[in-house]
Specification:
Mean pLDDT: 95
CATH superfamily of the largest domain: ATP-grasp fold, B domain
Helix content: 25-40%
Bound molecules: adenosine-5'-triphosphate, magnesium ion
Structural class: alpha+beta
């Protein structure tokens, strides 16, 4: 039901929470944030802010008790508290059950294997020592990709191990998994939405260009430059994945298109996603509004794109830490089709996501040209 007084509780007050609050405000929906500090990006735009830790049972439970719908902008939240809230009759999307699988990359990969969702070959290890032993025994050969099972984001829990030297310098400690190196032709992300009536809409797949050093997305292009048949297959796969997880809300499905034309699911995020930011400026419905529609069981909006778009993450300068300032903003704003979004983080750090720019144009080539200019200014 469309009810502007419904209280929407969001765990996490970063940029995704902020943009969710902004979308909600357009409909006069009331948003409440739980996070460590009201100085975080969402603090400036939410209806109410509760200072607390979304990883703590008591904090999440106390926060959620006053809410009608509870959602997230980060996966690493206390799911026991979410389960208790669900049992107390609160609407919680995504479900704590799906969150438990997704926030552990090991369980996530096992879920794909059990449900015949194509993914790279993998094996779980107790710690880095047992992975090392498996390499010594020849059970695994280099190159391989090591991932920590929990708490990784923005490429921080991922090590690409190519040489024996990397085994000494790059190995990450703790419970982990080894993955076969996928022969990547392109990285795609497909955002899909589902409401409680089981309606599903799929945003057009985007192409992600990953920064080699930071292991972080640098440019994002929509539509992706892959054959129409691949786009259709990617959309169908994303739809199957959200139905298999039985999630209401958004699900971002990151995929690899391999050099031999296969689509493999890399990982998913059950929330608005970096790869969907362009939808604010280039789609019929933004991913943030779509998430609200989905979790409130409203009709889903059209996910059609109005114009080709290229998104550039504005990352903290390598080697610089301290108060944020935004060089080159004016030169970029003077260009038609340049849409600037700053998150309002007081401090910058190397490769920290400080904001993004979406460039729209009549053609993808024209948008890409302007995006390169933005990137270099
Ligand atoms: N099996 C693999 N084969 C080849 N490359 C991989 C593999 N797994 C991950 N990568 C590369 O590492 C990047 C980061 O991996 P992944 O998405 O799993 O980590 P993440 O830390 O969750 O990243 P993010 O938070 O940015 O989405 C991928 O986008 C891809 O470029
Ligand atoms: Mg990823």
């Amino acid at each position: 039901m469309f009810d502007t007084n419904k209280k929407i509780g969001i765990l996490g007050g970063g940029q995704l929470g902020k943009m969710l609050c902004l979308a909600a405000a357009n409909w006069d929906f009331k948003t409440y944030i739980l996070d460590a500090s009201p100085d975080y990006p969402a603090g400036a735009v939410c209806t109410g802010f509760t200072t607390g830790d979304f990883r703590h049972y008591d904090d999440v439970l106390a926060f959620g008790k006053d809410m009608d719908v509870i959602t997230i902008e980060i996966e690493h939240v206390n799911t026991d508290a979410l389960r208790a809230l669900e049992q107390a009759g609160k609407t919680v999307h995504p479900s704590p059950r799906a969150l438990d699988i997704i926030k552990d990359k090991g369980l996530q990969k096992e879920f794909y294997r059990e449900n015949d969702i194509p993914t790279t070959k993998f094996e779980l290890f107790e710690d880095e020592k047992s992975l090392l032993a498996a390499v010594k025994q020849g059970d695994w050969t280099l190159p391989l990709v090591q991932k920590t099972r929990t708490a990784g984001y923005d490429g921080r829990g991922v090590a690409v191990l190519r040489t024996p030297g990397d085994l000494q310098t790059k190995l990450l400690s703790g419970p982990c998994l080894a993955e076969e190196m996928a022969p990547i032709q392109a990285e795609l992300a497909v955002i899909v939405a589902r409401n409680a009536q089981d309606d599903v809409t799929v945003f057009p797949p985007v192409e992600m260009d990953v920064h080699p050093e930071a292991n972080l997305v640098e440019f994002l292009l929509c539509p992706a430059r892959v054959p129409a048949l691949v786009l259709a297959e990617a959309e169908a796969l994303a739809e199957r994945v959200i139905r298999t997880f039985d999630i209401c809300g958004l699900l971002a499905v990151e995929m690899f298109l391999t050099t031999d034309g296969r689509l493999l699911v890399n990982e998913v995020a059950p929330r608005p996603h970096n790869s969907g930011h362009h939808t604010i400026d280039s789609a019929q419905t933004s991913q943030f509004q779509q998430h609200l529609r989905a979790i409130c069981n409203l009709p889903l909006g059209s996910a059609a794109q109005k114009m080709p778009a290229v998104m550039v993450n504005l990352l903290g300068e390598p080697g610089h830490k301290g108060p944020a300032h935004y060089a080159g903003a004016e030169a970029c704003l003077a260009i038609e089709g340049v849409h600037l979004h700053l998150y309002g983080k007081a401090m910058t750090a190397p490769f920290r996501k400080m904001g993004h720019v979406t460039v729209t144009a009549e053609t993808l080539e024209a948008a890409l040209k302007k995006a390169h200019f933005v990137k270099n200014n």
